[in-house]
Structure formats: structure tokens, C-alpha cells
Amino acid sequence: MKEYNKKLILEDGSEYYGYSFGAEKDTVCEIVFNTSMAGYQEIVSDPSYTYQGVVMSYPLIGNYGITDEDFESRLISPSALIVRDINDNPSNFRFTRTLPELLAENDIPGLYGVDTRKLVRNIRDKGSERGLLTDPSVSVEEGLKIIKETPVKRDAVEKCSCKKRWYIRTTNPKFKVVVIDCGAKTNILRMLSKKGCNITVVPFDTSAEEIMSLDPDGIMVSNGPGDPEDVKPVIETLKQLRGKLPIFGICLGHQLIALSYGAKTYKLKFGHRGGNHPVKDLATGKIEITSQNHSYAVDQASVEGTGLKISHINLLDNTVEGLISEEDRCFSVQYHPESAPGPQDSTYLFDRFMKNMEDYRNA
Question: N or C: more exposed end of the chain, with fewer CB within 10 A?
């Protein structure tokens, strides 16, 4: 067996030895796990993983390579990728490069050969921790000192949001939608376009006045990374926009809508990441199989008295998965309805948004 050339040190002092792939560099980041069996390209190109090191619980990663058409954004977002086995010789007629090549191109380090079952259990039992990917010669004491002295970054949304507005046009448009980009995934935009929306994507710190000047029929608040309480510009903008236009929020957008109405959020022990979370629609009793990627959740008790009602609940841990204000034509979900793990369980939410915009226009 060849000698280990990379290791992960966690805040609890545990060490996980393995081999390097991707970029050859050290990094400090929050270590989280994802339970998806496929979709590693979508995961590494999802801006919601900004400043996080992702542990894949499925053992074999990279076996179908990287395909140019399947990126969720132009950003390759995680700080690190940790896997059991990496395949750098894919079998797929569509692939254009390997996963290790993609990480190397984007200066992202990877670690393979790790007992990911043990690592995932550690995160599950103790909660998400910060970790250091480094050389095996670095002692635990040195590693913990580096982790402690590395500040936690609070600018994740600013890093992955667009820097200026841009447009998506469709044939025979029915509605005009402004998307507040907190780290939007491409498939959210694609779904809106398929529903007949002309889309204007704006930076996260765009003012309510500027958004209203675009004369939209509705507002989409996108997914994104980090603590929602750090994204104060969007919270303030939503306070000014609510009740004026139909609003639809996804993932981070859901949390930001909750905060704008006066509810509270909190950090989950290890978050929800993967395409296998059952969610109940309280209005219909329907169970949806959902895809999720978040560290924070809306505090259930804090929703009362805000003007919002809880519309969806996670059946695994009873966390809030959806909110609605019928009066304001505003609703949100914590999961990703565009990801299609069900596969079409949640697409009705886009139809609801279209109906809200039509009702608003006809009011």
C-alpha cells in the first residue's frame, strides 16, 4: 500500500488519512456530508457549498466524469471534496474531463482513500465541525491551532452572487420575473424559463426600488450558502417588497423570507444534504421526496404571529420545510423543487408561482 500523502484533522482532534487529488493545497473549512448516490458534478457546482468541504457518503465518485451541459453554475464552489474512492478513468460517452481535473482547474483540493463511513458517522453524532486538509506530517496540535486561528468567513453570498444584472429571454413570454441571486442554481432559472418567464437576475444587494423599477410580475429569491442572518441586504429588500409582488423563495431564499417577516433561524446539528428527504405538504397530505442542501432551518415556534403559516414539514426531524402568506402571495420551501429527486413531486410549486403572478396581474 502506498504511503498516505494527505489527511483531514477535525476540531475534535480526530484524523483521517488518505491520498490527494485535485489541487495540491491546504485548506480550512466546515466539513459536511452529502448522502446522494449520484450527481457529484451538480454538487461541486452548487454555490450553496461555498466555504464547505463535502464528504460523499456514496463510496465511488467520478465514474461518469464531468459533462459540460450538467453544471449547476459557473462556479465550482466547495473548499474541498472528500471521498472513499475516486475514478479518474470515467466510462461515459458524454464526459469532457475527469473530476480530479475539474478540481485541479479550480484550485480545489480533494482527499480520497478515507473511511467515509466513519467520518460521516462522526459528523452525524457530533455535528458539523471545521477541519483542516493538510500534509500528514502536521501534528494534531498544529492543525487545531491553524483551525482556531482561521476566521470563519461571512461573505459566502457576496462571493457567489452575480456582480451585475443579466437576462434570460424565452419565446412568447407570459411573465417577467426578477431573481435575487444569492447563489442561484441553473436549473431554477431553466424551470422558470420553461414556464414562460423572461428572467432578470440581479445581485443579492440590489435595492427594492431598483427591483420595482424593472416592473416584474414576481420575485424569486434563490438558494445560496451560509448563515441567512449574514445576508442583511436581502432581508431588508424583502421587508420592503412583501405584499407588493408575488414572491417565491427556495432554500436560503426560504430562510430569508422567514427572517424578513420576523421569524428566526438556527443552525442544524449536521444539516440536510442529499436527495432522499421526505416532506409532507400539510394542505394536501402528500409526501414529496426532496433534494436538500442547507445547514440552517426556520425556528418553528418563531413563525407564529409573523403573518406566515407553516405549509410543509420534514418527516425525518419535523423541521419547517415550507412557509406561506396567502394574503401577500408569498411562499417558500426549504428544499429544491427543481432538482427532481421524486422526480416530479415538487414541480407544482412553480405552477403555484405562475398562478400567483397571474392573479396579481389580474387583481
Answer: N
Q: Is 338 tagged catalytic?
A: yes
Residues 6+ apart with CB under 8 A from 194: 170
In which order are the strands placed within the sheet that holds 330-333? 166-168, 197-203, 175-181, 218-221, 247-250, 330-333, 320-325, 309-314, 265-281, 287-298
Q: Compute the distance between CA of residue 146 and CA of residue 151 in angstroms, rounded to an integer.
A: 10
Kind and range of the H or E run holding 270: strand 265-281
> In sequence order, what DSSP letters do the residues of 95-118 get, joined into one string?
--B-HHHHHHHTT-EEEES--HHH
Report yes or no on whether pTM surpasses 0.90: yes
CA atoms of 316 and 180, how far apart (whole Å): 30
Please, where are the H alpha helices in the chain?
40-44, 99-105, 116-126, 140-149, 156-160, 186-194, 208-213, 232-241, 252-260, 348-362
- Determine whether 42 is an active site residue: no
Condensed to tens digits (0 to 9), the pLDDT of residues 283-304 reads 999 999 999 999 999 999 999 9
Maximum separation of any 2 CA atoms in the chain, in Å: 71
Active-site annotation holder among 182, 251, 254, 277:
251
- Is 188 in contact with 222 (CB distance < 8 Å)? yes
Residue 251 annotated among the catalytic residues of the structure: yes
Tell me how far apart the alpha carbons of residues 145 and 142 are, in angstroms, rounded to a whole number. Answer: 5
